[in-house]
Design goal:
The chain is α+β, with helices and mostly antiparallel strands and 372 residues long. 39% of the residues lie in helices and 24% in strands. The longest helix is centred in the C-terminal third of the chain and has 25 residues.
């Protein structure tokens, strides 16, 4: 039997670096896709071909081991196989081919799309029925333990459970979620790819998570309260302990606590169709990511600084883990062309590569198609 899986990328509207702190996030699946076809075969070998990424890769399901170097694209696929079998789901061999218009390394969850597409295709090919929420957790485990990127659950949940014209308000502690309507009217979402690539496995992403964990440990010791994550910390807790915390840990904690508040306020604004307030929260989020969490970069800051003063632009922020990747702009459709020209001119003046632009629709999550 042969199957095709269509897995969207995702954009995070607001709520960055809160997922691995058991906080709140507000992502949405977008109309940029990875398509994976899978045909089962006898034996225990997987052959995978990805358009534009070189020769086919062949590996055995019997010899999988977590990576000890910077990950390659095939490692995400291997990791899913490893995590599925670790969960007790025995797999057979398969031939897999991948085509994608999702930019790699740009913060739009190409890795999560690959993971979920692989998991959904292989489970279908092996006659397994696993709920999408469980598949998302298996894929997160693959990325955490096999690929060694300590991501939260947001990307996998957004790819798996996205709904057309809705954002997904996800509580990353309880995994409760609800859909928030995106009534954009004359406005749209513009993604601007800075073309600054980053590899999460070798970046300071894991270091940020370690800093948050250290902040929690110190706050617990100083305040004599038992905090399990920054989700449980309030701004008052931080203020009471700030004199005893290293400045860098205070700033990391402050960003996460404030960002959790912003996510809930932003979701309420969307529910009330208050796009002006939502745009304000986007701008405050970027300022925190730039100044407190320090995960922006000159290219992303230039995008935000250039577009925010433009009439018709309601808000802008970097989106994704940072250190490069994309910015998200909420703006009137009529000013997209003008904003594009201004960003191109600003990048040209700095002798930077021309960025890429995507006006995206909000789409449903992963889809499985059986091919006769």
């Amino acid at each position: 039997m042969k199957y095709k899986v269509i897995a969207p990328g995702r954009v995070n509207l607001i709520g960055e670096h809160t997922d691995y702190n058991q906080g709140f996030v507000l992502p949405a699946a977008i109309g940029l896709f990875l398509e994976l076809t899978c045909e089962s075969k006898q034996g225990r070998n997987i052959t995978a071909t990805a358009e534009g990424l070189g020769v086919p890769e062949i590996f055995s399901l019997d010899t999988l081991a977590p990576v000890i170097r910077d990950p390659l694209w095939i490692d995400y696929l291997k990791g899913v196989c490893w995590a599925l079998e670790k969960a007790g789901h025995l797999l057979s061999g398969a031939d897999i081919s991948i085509h994608s218009n999702l930019p790699i390394g740009s913060g739009l969850s190409s890795s999560a799309a690959l993971e979920l597409a692989t998991a959904k295709a292989l489970t279908a090919a092996n006659g397994l029925e696993i709920p999408l929420s469980e598949l998302a957790l298996i894929c997160q485990q693959a990325e955490n333990e096999f690929v060694k990127v300590r991501c939260g659950i947001m990307d996998q949940y957004a790819v798996a459970l996205g709904r057309k014209n809705h954002a997904l308000l996800l509580d990353c502690r309880s995994l409760d979620y609800k859909y928030i309507p995106l009534s954009l009217g004359k406005h749209c979402l513009l993604i601007i790819d800075s073309r600054v690539e980053r590899s999460l496995g070798s970046s300071v992403y894991n270091r940020r998570r370690e800093e948050c964990e250290e902040t929690v440990r110190r706050l617990s010791a100083i305040s004599k309260k038992e905090f399990n994550s920054l989700r449980e910390v309030t701004l008052d807790d931080l203020k009471e302990c700030c004199a005893y915390l290293p400045d860098i840990l205070y700033r990391r904690g402050r960003f996460v606590v404030e960002e959790n508040i912003r996510v809930q306020e932003a979701a309420a604004a969307l529910q009330g169709e208050d796009l002006l307030s939502f745009g304000y929260f986007m701008k405050r989020s970027h300022a925190g990511l730039r100044d407190l969490y320090e995960v922006s970069c000159p290219e992303l800051d230039l995008i935000v600084d250039t577009v925010v003063p433009v009439n018709g632009v309601l808000g802008a922020r970097m989106t994704g883990a940072g250190f490069g990747g994309c910015a998200l702009v909420l703006l009137e459709r009529d000013v997209v062309a003008a904003v594009t020209r201004q960003i191109e001119a600003a990048f040209t003046a700095m002798n930077w590569c021309k960025p890429y632009f995507y006006t995206v629709e909000i789409v449903q999550g992963i889809r499985l198609v059986e091919i006769p």
